[in-house]
Recover the amino acids of this structure.
């Protein structure tokens, strides 16, 4: 009896321990076998143009997932998925390998965006596929593929390095995040707050009932400064060209259009880009993944003569009446520096030199100024420094000086090098965005304004949360008198028969502008003087900067066409069409 009593006492104590003392823990473990938590991804905020026309929205995506804990034997389950869905088993195995170490009780995505046919096949065989499910999630949809790609950017699955960086504390493995463009810059604004549901599942992991749901909160909408029609027109004009165009509203700094060519389709990144396709993109010599509008660094060529002219006028090196004779070359030391016009321009003053883009005139102005004074004015005009646009990887360009060369090469500056940079060649490097911001300031009131892509942030019901502030970032350090002389010269470029851009002038309005031809490599001899006979990749780049109307600018544009040879023929027509379209819209 004692032995029996002792045995029952031990059983009683053990039951008491399991049910009373450890009861909560075992109850939790038991419920974990049948109660699961499922994520509800928040719809991402929309992206619209300045007139609130849709550029980016969301569409439903059917994602094939597996819970390894419920899918045993996993290998046989994968075989069945491959048979029913047509997805190769090795592709499914790659997804498991990439997510090695993933929690076995959480859904692991095998393939995103499987399509409705595969969805139907999986649903029909649901009871034969334990632990396999299809989640419906909002997926990013770019309404106009390849349009504004470098502005909008793209989205892709968060990487392990990004998760470990600490920059994404609210994200988890498998989340889709902005990787480029405004999608990345405004990730926190666009991303909503995820929700969840508590569900009861059976032994196969199939949902029996929903116990509780916490709805996801959508992200906020971005209203961009982009004009959709102008953007599409810019891209159309660049369809067969390589380069970039930037259009700015001078009074606000709003970016009206920004196109970089060639471009890419953002939608292919959302569903998952293959390694082969990625290699093709990054190995393309025309660099479709580079935003040439802010990352492309080019010699500014004759567009830089605007800076040389205002520096010379402001420093009293020359005035409006000062003239130099151009016989087609300028002798400095024992070397002749050629003018682009073989026979020369004759005797020209500041206005005529700008209009006809006379190299000899600007050689002499640059020589009188010296490299350091020229560099000071260039940097005061915003060249050689970041504009502060809200996109990643903006390039600063380069404005050389004597000190820069000593640090970089350990040798002093040479006088002949000043002649080259005075006409925008040599070491000078600028971006199309910098030139557009400078042109806007020159055309309007001399104030450089920060270029803005974001106009406002709104909730899904249209409540304005934030408006972008128009922000001056500097003033061109010249007098009103100097600015007026520059205006005369730039007006003559476009509107006088002898101006280099006369043939591409807008018909309905007077504009001011400047052409430029940037050499890809130095040509000291007469050979290939006009770029004829050169292979395509060695032909000069064509520049054109302009603002219109000349007396009260509403738009300023910078265009660079790689290997386009001449700014007037390659870049000028692009600017003319954009000016005509935008000003016509303003009248309407």
């Amino acid at each position: 009896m004692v032995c029996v009593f002792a045995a029952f006492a031990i059983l009683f104590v053990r039951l008491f321990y399991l049910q009373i003392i450890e009861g909560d823990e075992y109850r939790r473990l038991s419920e974990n076998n049948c109660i699961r938590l499922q994520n509800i991804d928040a719809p991402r905020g929309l992206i619209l143009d300045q007139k609130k026309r849709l550029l980016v929205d969301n569409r439903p995506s059917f994602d094939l997932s597996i819970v390894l804990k419920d899918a045993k034997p996993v290998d046989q389950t994968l075989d069945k998925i491959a048979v029913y869905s047509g997805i190769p088993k090795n592709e499914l195995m790659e997804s498991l390998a990439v997510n090695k170490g993933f929690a076995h009780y959480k859904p692991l995505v095998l393939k995103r965006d499987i399509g409705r046919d595969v969805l139907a096949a999986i649903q029909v065989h649901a009871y034969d596929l334990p632990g396999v499910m299809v989640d419906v999630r909002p997926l990013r949809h770019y309404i106009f593929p390849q349009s504004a790609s470098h502005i909008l950017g793209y989205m892709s699955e968060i990487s392990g390095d990004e998760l470990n960086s600490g920059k994404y504390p609210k994200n988890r493995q498998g989340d889709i995040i902005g990787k480029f463009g405004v999608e990345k810059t405004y990730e926190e604004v666009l991303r909503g707050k995820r929700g969840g549901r508590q569900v009861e599942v059976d032994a196969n992991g199939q949902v029996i009932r929903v116990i509780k749901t916490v709805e996801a909160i959508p992200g906020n909408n971005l209203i961009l400064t982009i004009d959709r029609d102008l953007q599409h027109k810019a891209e159309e004009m660049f369809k067969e060209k390589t380069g970039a165009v930037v259009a700015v509203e001078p009074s606000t700094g709003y970016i009206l259009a920004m196109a970089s060519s060639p471009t890419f389709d953002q939608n292919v990144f959302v569903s998952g880009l293959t390694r082969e396709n990625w290699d093709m993109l990054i190995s393309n010599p025309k660099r479709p993944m580079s935003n040439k509008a802010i990352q492309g660094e080019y010699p500014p060529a004759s567009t830089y003569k605007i800076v040389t002219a205002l520096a010379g006028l402001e420093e009293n090196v020359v005035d409006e009446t000062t003239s130099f004779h151009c016989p087609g070359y300028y002798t400095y030391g024992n070397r002749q520096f050629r003018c682009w016009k073989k026979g020369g321009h004759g005797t020209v003053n500041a206005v005529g030199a700008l209009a006809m883009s006379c190299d000899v005139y600007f050689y002499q102005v640059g020589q009188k100024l010296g490299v350091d004074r020229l560099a000071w004015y260039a940097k005061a005009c915003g060249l050689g420094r970041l504009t502060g646009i809200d996109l990643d990887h903006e390039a600063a360009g380069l404005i050389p000086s004597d000190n820069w060369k000593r640090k970089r090469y350990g040798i002093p500056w040479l006088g002949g090098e000043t002649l080259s940079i005075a006409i925008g060649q040599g070491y000078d490097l600028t971006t199309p965005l910098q030139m557009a911001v400078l042109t806007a300031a020159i055309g309007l009131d001399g104030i450089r304004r920060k270029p803005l892509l974001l106009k406002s942030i709104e909730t899904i019901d249209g409540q304005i949360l934030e408006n972008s502030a128009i922000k001056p970032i500097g003033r061109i350090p010249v007098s009103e008198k100097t600015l007026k002389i520059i205006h005369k010269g730039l007006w003559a470029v476009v509107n006088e028969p002898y101006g280099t851009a006369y043939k591409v002038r807008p018909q309905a309005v007077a504009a001011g502008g400047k052409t430029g031809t940037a050499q890809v490599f130095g040509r000291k001899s007469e050979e290939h003087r006009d770029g004829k006979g050169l292979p395509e990749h060695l032909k000069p780049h064509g520049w054109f900067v302009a603002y219109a109307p000349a007396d009260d600018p509403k738009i300023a544009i910078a265009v660079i066409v790689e290997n386009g040879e001449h700014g007037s023929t390659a870049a000028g027509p692009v600017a003319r069409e954009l000016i005509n379209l935008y000003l016509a819209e303003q009248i309407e």
About this structure: The longest helix spans residues 567-587. The mean pLDDT is 90. The domain at 37-224 is CATH 3.90.1310.10 (Penicillin-binding protein 2a (Domain 2)).
